[in-house]
């Protein structure tokens, strides 16, 4: 997939602003960002469901939206909200989707049987979809999205309404698909899910603010992240908030996670920045994570937006 200058405007609102993407084949590519960051709008444009205001999109060698109709049979799309038929059984839902995708009667029977077994739904095939649990609905929706064996699968925040165990199981299924050659583009706002992706794109207010592998992105912040353990963490946080060398301070339980504006910061530098708020405080340099990456990327973008033209 190749995307250049992708932009979508809704009147005066710029929902997606000049996004460039390169998504390799058989890759789990993550879209990370808060609600309203432009993830869903971008996915709909890539699928051909929404016409971009500007930009060039090539998906599986096809130009979008010009060749969107030809693309439909080669992609799968799973939305955040369960979109199958509540009053049809599990099997009936899959059979209907297979028919819509043009599978023959024999191929439909074979494929549905295979998916029911793979996604542990064979003992529920006569159950009405509307009576299933969140995790079961999620597995059914994924089975429906791949009933026609698409080359590319779009998933729009697919795990937002399920429990942690179901989320882990779902991601195992995604990697099975990727190992078999399916390219997967999945949007999420969960940092732990983002860490599972082969590559990531961070979106903020419609802007692409960072992209790369999780390791590439976190390695850029080495030497800038610390954990502080103090008897009075709130007092230490107040001392650090607003300091010119400190980019962010987040309290996690009784600890503070501190992100500095530059690397090569020493423990003594940080203790001085805290103003010796607590002489017994422990300060430890720690590895950066994707939340740190997101904070840096979004703050940099906000600062550029605030600069006068």
TrEMBL record:
Q: Which GO terms describe its molecular function?
A: ATP binding
* Residues annotated as transmembrane: none
List keywords of the entry alphabetically.
Answer: ATP-binding, Nodulation, Nucleotide-binding, Transport
Q: Where is the ABC transporter domain?
A: 1-230
Q: Is tRNA-binding a UniProt keyword of this protein?
A: no
- InterPro entries in UniProt: AAA+_ATPase, ABC_transporter-like_ATP-bd, ABC_transporter-like_CS, ABC_transporter_ATP-binding, P-loop_NTPase
Superkingdom of origin: Bacteria
Q: Name one Pfam family in it.
A: ABC_tran
- Keyword Cell division among record annotations: no
Sequence similarity: Belongs to the ABC transporter superfamily.
Q: What is this protein called?
A: ABC transporter ATP-binding protein
- Species for this entry: Dyella kyungheensis
